[in-house]
Predict the structure of Glycosyltransferase family 2 protein.
Amino acid sequence: MITQDLKFPAAASADNKLGGNNTAFENKPTMDTGEEQVSGNYSKATFTKRHVSILVGTFMLLIGAAYAFYLLQPQYQEMNLNRMDTIGGMILLITGIFLLLFRLGFLAFIARQFFRYKPVSSVTDEELPTCTVIVPAYNEGKLVYSTLKSLVNSSYPAEKLELIAINDGSKDDTWAWMEKAKEELGDRVSIFQQPKNMGKRHALYRGFKLGKGEVFVTVDSDSIVEVDTLRNLVSPFITNENCGAVAGNVRVLNNQKAIIPRMLNVSFVFSFEFIRSAQSVMGSVLCTPGALAAYRRNAVMNCLEEWMNQTFMGQPTDIGEDRAMTNMILKQGFHVLFQRNAYVLTNIPEKYSSLHKMFTRWERSNVRENLMMTKFAFKPFRNGSRAGTRLLLVNQWMGMITAYPLILMMIILLIAHPVLFICSTLLSILIFSSLPAFFYAKKYNITEAFWIYSYSIFYTFGLFWITPYAMATASRRGWLTRG
């Protein structure tokens, strides 16, 4: 799970995913998955006529909206004056100003933390702890083979690395590809079958029980790691005795294919490299992503049974295992950090139907885990400063509390003032999306950065309903994207 922690009025969320220092991703080595080369090159942009037409259409729409906003100033002023003549209008205006100031203040706070962030450099081979990597797999086919090959090709000392892959009752040829990996890699990898499809949490639980390492690393079976990813990921456990978990830096593997992954890649970069970097400075990364995360063994064992038997509204929990584990480790008083130099490339949905299901699953987990976090975050759950952790949680709650009022206000304005509403919304997208666009352009590629504007329009008008829907259906079970 990759949470979307910061939602601009029109732009999509942001977290954070860039490279170790300020070097560009194109300087990172190409990853050999055995069967094919998966390039980590994000400096080059290839555009088809369809791509160009989408980007041109996006900016024509945004610039046209900005011009219309200028021309329609008398109507905006009249609407605001009429609003100020009523108590409801005044409340709405004051509330809007407060929310805007809160968002801007929170963003300024996050930016300040971001500039303080530095990833931990890899420690020596002798200092590296023994490590168990757990790869749960369900209907991944050949991708699981590529994942296992990339892990074995890591620069982590072989004698300190234990690799466990667990087939969670797949209905396709996933097991055959795991057997192929076992045949080629021998004792470097151990493969196991679940008796039936039991869910990702059960597969991870079995891996935690089997693993012997001082550190557990979880990797999704559709993800490819770089050569130095594992050693960079676990190094904070050696340099910081308070570190209980580490989040990896997730990037989009299939970003050169469909439009949705291409748009989401820019959002992912901002989400991980900006937001999670800032959270890491506070020792409070809110979610260690399923695609790549590391956990101190004793921190996992302290909460393993509680995590495995977690319930919500009386029902067993079968989603949000990553956010739940992060919460339980934070609750123990450990710090949760982010390693910008620990890259993983992962597949994301290419179709709207799969994307909204994935986002719904994430949001339901956020609702549940925000409730759980609230139970301990305002208590002395750890030594040292806890203000940053609490502010991060308050920001999460602000997004939830305002979800229904904003939807209601959007509907009212869309009915009463459709042109004014659409123009102001598109202008907001143009303004607020420029921060992640600038961030991506500075780190990687200017032309690819423009996709954030298209994504913000897509999110604002196509995915706005997910948070309120997830809140209303938070008790529902199911992975949704597993057909």
